[in-house]
Design goal:
Layout: H1 6-19, E1 22-26, E2 35-42, E3 45-50, H2 57-73, E4 80-83, H3 92-105, H4 120-130, H5 134-143
Parallel strand pairs: 1-3
Antiparallel strand pairs: 2-3, 2-4
Length: 167
């Protein structure tokens, strides 16, 4: 779904999450909050809330799988409010959720190829070989310091919040 347009992947995400017993809510980002996602349980129902903080597809998809990692791996009594603060110290649970997301997006057995992706075409070809959007690969390369944060950003897709007329 990462290579699809939001009009295609959003309803499919809702459908798949509902089938898995998870409520998926897309919410506008709260100004100056830096919150990209929340995972929590309300009674016996899992809830993942996603904002468009950061607005790029690499952050969006990483946040979704990060929150899913919290739902699948961590205590149902906790609320996981994931806010980008720039802090380098993370809890064990946050590391586990990060690893879960990273592994879902780029299979661990292919991660060793990442340091060799130095051109746009190499990123595009690698992304196609694992069937994800190249912007997600760029985000991972940037996060791991393999490429500078100002490289290849044109391969990422920016999302924006649209109000629905029928809502």
């Amino acid at each position: 779904m990462t290579v699809e347009y939001p009009q295609v992947f959003q309803p499919r995400m809702h459908e798949l999450c509902t089938q898995a017993g998870v409520v998926l809510a897309f919410v506008p980002a709260i100004s100056k909050s830096h919150v990209s996602g929340v995972a929590r349980w309300i009674k016996s129902k899992a809830l993942i809330q996603l904002s468009l903080y950061g607005k790029t597809n690499d952050r969006f998809w990483f946040t979704f799988f990060h929150e899913a990692g919290h739902i699948l791996k961590h205590d149902k009594k906790e609320v996981f409010l994931d806010e980008f603060t720039g802090k380098l110290i993370k809890s064990q649970q946050e590391h586990e959720a990060d690893e879960f997301a990273a592994s879902w997006l780029i299979p661990p057995q292919r991660a060793s190829e990442l340091p060799y992706l130095k051109t746009k075409q190499a990123v595009i070809d690698f992304a196609a070989s694992i069937n994800i959007h190249p912007g997600i690969v760029v985000g991972r390369l940037q996060h791991e310091g393999i490429i500078p944060t100002n490289w290849m950003n044109d391969l990422k897709i920016s999302f924006r919040w649209e109000e629905r007329a029928d809502a």
